[in-house]
Amino acid sequence: MEKVTKGSRKDTKRSRKDSTKGSMMKTSKKLTKKEMKKFSKKELKEYEKERKKIEKEEKKLKKKLIKDAKVLAKKQAKEAKQTQKLLNKAKKIKKASKKKRKLETPPLIGQGLARKLQNEVTDALVHTRSLDNELNLLDYKLMDIFNAVDTCSIAWSDGTEHNCASAFQSVPTSLDAIGYHAVVRHPIGLRNVHTNIQRGNYKDIMSLSKDLRRMIHNAKLYNLPGSMIHADATRLSASLQHIMSKQQAQLSMKQKQNSVRRRQARNASPEQYDRKSPIATSGSSLFSSSSSSSTTTSCELCSRYERPTLPGDNCPIGHWICGDCRANSNVATSSNVIGKSVRVWWPSDEEYYIGRILAFEATSGQHRVYYDVDHDWEFLDLSTQDMVFLE
């Protein structure tokens, strides 16, 4: 056994005092009699002061915690009341909606509602654009360019026809064309172009030609030279260039004709303006209420041509006028034609579709016809169409 010296004992006592002093100084508890004997009077006074300070701080913290707890409890109570009110309102709304559903038809949800709103917007847009002559002419030119590209075809040696735009109708999927979307950054198809035209998204012809050229560029970028789609893309490019140059030539010819007409009008005498009386004026009614399609077998305006047998199994009932009367500018622009409902024969579908004539485009001599079935419009030459006017 090792002997413990006096110095070592003193060191152990000091270390004990320091440990007890440090531990007691941190707490707010009072010292016992045994612990008080270990410290001097000065140390005890200092300890008592620090102990009182700690007690005060602890009381302040407790008060703050209690206040915060009360504030949180009040906020939670208010939120609970508000949520309860909202739940009660939601229950009332559900009950009212259930009662309405029993009486009314179920409302459209999701894609059906979005499609309905989209159709309403397109209807309003088409009707407003039809009132403006410049927008009417722009829409006609856009559809003329689109139809020229969409109907581009070539004849093979065996007599069959190949539609060059058949592969360009929609954007190919990743299953149809592997890695297409990695190569082509901005894909577009003819259906996208058609919807943009129908909704009036193109402000000029250059924006349409830009989309069509981008579609052709995408096809040439993905497909190898010598392939069928690459060759079709070059044919579509040639067709687009041809129709654009044709429209430019027509515009220059129209400008020349207008300048000639202005010169003639300046040099003409007032007697030369006497014209024949029009076939149908805007004030007179185009179709008499007494006449019916079953009794009349000739044109209801001039009665010079007999009514032909219209195509299709079910011959539509309605008023018929000949092509010469339809081509007359006085009839074409009259209120008796504009706004009328018609049945138009579509040879591709072999069916009659009901449309409404919205406007007349003077430069082409065609009318804008709007179909309620698919909310699409097109320009038609009424003098060459198999159609019937509805009452």
Order of H and E elements: HHHHHEEHHHHHHEEEEE
Mean pLDDT: 78
Helix coverage percent: 40-55%
Gyration radius, to the nearest Å? Answer: 45 Å
* Gross CATH architecture of the largest domain: Up-down Bundle
CATH superfamily of the largest domain: Bromodomain-like
Percentage beta strand: 5-15%
Low-confidence stretches: 19-25, 268-284, 289-295
Spatial arrangement of strands, main beta sheet: 6-5-4-3-7
| Sheet with the most strands, sense and barrel status | 5 strands, antiparallel
- How far apart the termini lie comes to 130 Å
CATH-defined topology of the largest domain: Histone Acetyltransferase, Chain A
Q: Can you tell me the overall shape?
A: elongated
How many discrete domains? 3
Helix and strand composition category: alpha+beta
Classified by CATH, the class of the largest domain is Mainly Alpha
How many helical stretches?
Answer: 11
> How many E-type strands?
7
Give a brief outline of the structure.
The chain is an alpha+beta fold and 391 residues long. It has helices spanning 6-26, 33-37, 41-103, 111-131, 133-150, 180-183, 190-198, 205-222, 228-267, 323-327, 329-332, and strands spanning 153-155, 161-163, 341-346, 351-361, 366-371, 376-380, 387-389.
Write the layout of secondary structure elements.
Layout: H1 6-26, H2 33-37, H3 41-103, H4 111-131, H5 133-150, E1 153-155, E2 161-163, H6 180-183, H7 190-198, H8 205-222, H9 228-267, H10 323-327, H11 329-332, E3 341-346, E4 351-361, E5 366-371, E6 376-380, E7 387-389
Antiparallel strand pairs: 1-2, 3-4, 3-7, 4-5, 5-6
Helix pairs in contact: 5-7, 5-9, 8-9
